[in-house]
Amino acid sequence: MTPPSSHRDVIVIGAGLSGLVAAYRLARGGASVLVLEARQRVGGRTLTVPLGRGYADLGGQWMSPTQHRLAALSEELGVATVPQARSGHMVIQWADRTDRREPWWSRLPLATTWELTRRVRQIDRLCQQIPLDAPESARGAAEWSQQSLADWLDQNVRTHRARETLELASQLVFGAEPHELSFLYVLHALGVTSGLTGRRAFGPGATEMRFVGGAHRLSRVLAARLGPIVRLGHRVASIDHSGPRVVVTCRSTVARSGGAEARFSAQLIILALSPSLFARIDITPDLALTAAGCHGGRLHLSPVIKCAFAYREAFWRQDDLSGEAYRSQGAVRAVVDHSTPDGSQPALLAFIVGDRARSLSAGQPAERRSLVIAELVELFGRRAEAPVDYAEKNWPDDRWSPGCVAIVGPAAFESPPHRPEGGQPRDPARPWIIAPGTSHGPFGRIHLAGTETATRWPSYMEGAVEAGERAAGEVLSRLAQRPPA
Ligand SMILES: Cc1cc2nc3c(=O)[nH]c(=O)nc-3n(C[C@H](O)[C@H](O)[C@H](O)COP(=O)(O)OP(=O)(O)OC[C@H]3O[C@@H](n4cnc5c(N)ncnc54)[C@H](O)[C@@H]3O)c2cc1C
Fold first, then answer.
1. pLDDT tens digits for 204-215?
2. Does the Cβ of 235 fall within 6 Å of ligand 1?
3. Pocket flag, ligand 1, residue 302 (CB < 6 Å)
4. What is the mean pLDDT of the segment spanning 244-253?
């Protein structure tokens, strides 16, 4: 076996936003650091690509004004933010009609408005009953963890339009279908963000600000400052933390390298990727966390495809439309204006989520392009027919981040039908959920970062920053305690 080629204080695994933030804080704290990233790029679930004369955010995109860590980081890195363009009317296309030009809720029958208001308040009240660091200890937890969101809607929602609205909200917030979400997970996830009303899926809230040049810039600037300590194309295959040093074995993902092996050692490790991917790394001794951390196999990333279209002009604005649209039917669930902040490149961005993303993921980009254009024409008219450029990201097909938000299925849904490998049997002795904030260990010499381990806004960039900063802080204080060499 080849000996480790170099030794560091800390190895960070994963050069997404969380891993890079951790590495940056560690390096500034005086630690020697190495970052190992499987892909040929940094940024993980953030990805900004050229689109016409502008650019498109095909991964993480928005920031909420309540996400203070992300705001502070963007200021520190010199990445400016701008409000998401929203002036003009929103379009909502229901199964049986299209609403334009007035607040969408003003056209709802009174019974529906009444029911929607009550159900949203009810969900927000239930969220408040969930202890954020121990959701499984809530009074109704046993029942809610067995139930899916769809079960809860079946039992509580009577009017057709209220159901349609809440299903659409679930698809928009989680990128997933109500039947694949544990109701306890939904309550907890809303509780650690800003509840259903605070989030306002149909308007500003979590989607209020964009990053000038794209969200990916945050990671690119961090990586540029870190320099050669960030090693791309290094897939971590195993971690051995049984001895006095942790030994990490990587396989090269560079084509023509033949999967060459490299080994590194460190005092401590920060694992900065979604717990849904831990099982791909051979960890010795096994993290007691792994099975429970993956929620007994019920944690997976929700499927989302983003499709961006550049146009010669922002024709929707000429019709006093904002470019923001929601559909309860078809492939596309949401569309937003994605023009460059200076207006030099008009653009629309469409989201395909849940079951539709899963089925369309297997097709070709040209098919998705035509399908989405046809739906944009239904929303905005014939001028949507002729984009000058197209870019897409099919996340379910991505080897390193096969989705968007880490979601937990109901206990009764151990083997999601879309997962070819099936679910894992759940160990009844383990709590069904590892709450963010209590799940980050450390586990021996392994510390966890990654957005899923954040206490606030897990699954968002804010959560990634919080987790990266927290893990770096833990590691720096541990390094400070070690005896002098
Ligand atoms: C379509 C989409 C839309 C989104 N929209 C928003 C939004 O508007 N606002 C928001 O705040 N958030 C949004 N998010 C979520 C946000 O992008 C993520 O929460 C955040 O980027 C996660 O960062 P992370 O560093 O925790 O994880 P990741 O970005 O997943 O980083 C983990 C890294 O680990 C690497 N890796 C995996 N396995 C290995 C291995 N074995 N060895 C080495 N490296 C490995 C991966 O390649 C990856 O680079 C969105 C995400 C998607 C996909």
1. 478 899 999 999
2. yes
3. no
4. 94
Asked whether residue 365 is assigned to any structural domain, the reply reads yes
Whether 317 and 375 map to the same domain: the answer is yes
Please name the residues in contact with 226: beta carbons below 8 A apart, sequence gap of 6 or more.
20, 23, 24, 27, 33, 35
Distance 449 CA to ligand 1 centre (A): 12
Is the overall model pTM greater than 0.90, yes or no?
A: yes
Q: pLDDT digit string (tens) for 178-187?
A: 998 989 989 9
List, in order, residues 6 or more apart from 417 with CB less than 8 Å away.
none
- Is the separation of the CB atoms in 241 and 285 below 8 Å? yes
Total tally of structural domains belonging to the chain: 2
- Residue 118's CATH number: 3.90.660.10
Identify whether 328 is part of a domain: yes
Residue among 320, 424, 338 nearest 87 (CA): 320
**Which tokens go with 287?**
């993290």
Helix or strand (DSSP H, E) at 144: helix 141-146
CA of 231 to the centre of ligand 1 (A): 17
Q: Is the CB of 459 under 6 A from ligand 1?
A: yes
Distance CA 470, CA 19 (A): 11
> For residues 375 and 327, is the Cβ–Cβ distance under 8 A?
yes
Neighbour count for residue 433 (Cβ, 10 Å)? 24
Pocket test for ligand 1, best of 45, 294, 299, 470 (most atoms within 8 A of CB): 45
Ligand 1 centroid, distance to 302 Cα (angstroms): 12
Which has more pLDDT, 426 or 411?
Answer: 411
Q: Please tell me the distance between residue 16's alpha carbon and the centre of ligand 1 in angstroms.
A: 6
Distance 45 CA to ligand 1 centre (A): 3
Q: What CATH number corresponds to the domain at position 273? A: 3.50.50.60
Of 397, 432, 451, the position where a domain reaches its end is: 397
Q: Are residues 190 and 92 in the same domain?
A: yes
pLDDT tens for 270-319 read 999 988 888 889 998 877 554 444 555 567 889 999 999 999 999 999 99
Interval 452-456 mean pLDDT: 84
What is residue 26's three-state secondary structure?
A: helix
- Both tokens of 38, joined, read 């499987």
Minimal CA–CA distance to 63: which of 75, 55, 73, 71? Answer: 71
Three-state DSSP state, 267: strand
Minimum-distance ligand 1 atom for the alpha carbon of 41: 49
The boundaries of the domain holding residue 253 are 6-80+213-287+443-481
Q: Could you identify the atom of ligand 1 that is nearest to the CA of residue 464?
A: 26
